[in-house]
Amino acid sequence: MTAHHDLGYRSLFAHPELVRDLIADFTPFKLFENVALSSFKRVNATYVSEQASAREGDMVWRVQVGDHCLYVYLLLEFQSSVDPWMALRMQTYIGLLHQDLVKRHELQRGGLLPPVLPLVFYNGKRRWSASMELAKLLMEAPAGLAPFQPSQRYLLIDQKRLDQAALKANANVLSLLFLFELSSAPDVLKEVAPALITWLRATPQLALRRSVAAWANRVAERRSGRPGPFSLENMEEFADMGRKFATWAEEFEYIGFKKGRAEGKAEGKAEGKAEGKAEGKAEGKAEGMAEGKLIALRAMLRSVLRRRFGDLPAPAGQRIDKATHAELEEWFEHALAAPSLEEVFGER
Question: pLDDT digit string (tens) for 42-68?
């Protein structure tokens, strides 16, 4: 899922309209607000050092601002854990960018290196805790050596911590996309999806419209747990995403709980006839709640595993059916990052 989602954002930020909106509306830098889209040019972001090690996948844009060119290095970060060495990584990537410009003889008159805006777009669940300054990762230098130590900073956009009220006040499509991913299912159904549909119908840029629609459909499929494709223009597709839950995932837990509670009540009612109605109801309710949680965990685990590894083999399904609550929770944690299905179950 992570790689798939990563590619979705790469498709979005391959459009200068969204890159300009990202910088103008989600960073303190306003010099990009009135820059024409024709001034944005996508740059090859693969650089090879003397050791032949390649860095692929980051987004680099060259922007003509007045008489000068500057570069935006956009690093999309979707890994589950925060990289404490991000400032060091960013220094390396910008160094490789500058080195590549020198090798290609692309420096402007005067032969000076151009300024770079280093931007990290983070989508992880954990709050970003890494230092945004390289200086804080260095040991204190002996007296006199401080001026010779490297210095690098980057700007962070932590998407999951964005203020939703501010996003709603912003009229651009990027704010709608962020709200689409961050909002509860009822808000998506009532507010975000209709606004996004209105934008899709109005925008004349066919390629951008396709990228936005594909991204929204992908998010809808991932968050609802239902196989796509979805149609944004068919609002009934979103009705099943929930009406009263804080997050879409909670709906799956509720469905499992509701089913387990019903089964537990039936069992408790039958037992209550023989052992006493009050005791049977209490036992049935307790068992139903426990069974509901198991059903929910099994359904959510299967959904994650299918998305990451494809159809599940029969033995894996049987293990899930027989697993305890503790085993299911452990496997669910493994399922988010394990490189193979075998390692989810602790097999190597």
Answer: 987 776 555 544 455 588 999 998 888
Question: Three-state SS across 104-127?
Answer: CCCCCCCCCCCCEEEEEEECCCCC
The pLDDT score that the predictor gives to residue 206 is 87
Phi, psi of 149, deg, nearest 5: -90, 150
- Under the banding of pLDDT at 50, 70 and 90, the label for residue 295 is confident
Question: Which tokens is 244 given?
Answer: 């009263």
Peptide bond into 229 cis (omega under 30): yes
Element (H, E) at 273: helix 248-275
Residue 228: the pLDDT is: 55
Top mean pLDDT of 108-117, 137-146, 213-222 is at: 137-146
In the block, tokens 């501010």 appear at 166
Give CA–CA dist 284/286, Å, rounded: 6
pLDDT score recorded for residue 111 = 83
φ, ψ (nearest 5 deg) of residue 77: -115, 115
pLDDT at 201: 82
How far is it, in rounded angstroms, from Cα 168 to Cα 159? 14
- Residue predicted with more confidence, 205 or 189: 205
Distance CA 77, CA 6 (A): 8
The tokens describing 264, both together, are 């537990």
Strand partners, 166: none
Bridge pairing between strands 59-65 and 54-55: unpaired
Query: Exposed, middle or buried by CB within 10 Å (0-12, 13-18, 19+), for 207?
Result: exposed
Residue with tokens 């009612």: 269
Q: Do the bridges between strand 47-48 and strand 54-55 make them parallel or antiparallel, or are there none, so unpaired?
A: antiparallel
Taking the C-alpha atoms of residue 70 and residue 184, their distance in angstroms, rounded to an integer, is 38
Question: Cα separation of 163 and 161, whole Å?
Answer: 6
Alpha-carbon distances of 102 from 32, 128, 204, 304, rounded to whole Å = 25, 34, 38, 45
Q: What CA–CA distances, in Å, run from 96 to 19, 50, 91, 322?
A: 22, 10, 9, 52
Burial of 169 (0-12, 13-18, 19+ CB in 10 A): exposed
Tens of pLDDT, residue by residue over 222-239, are 766 655 555 555 444 444
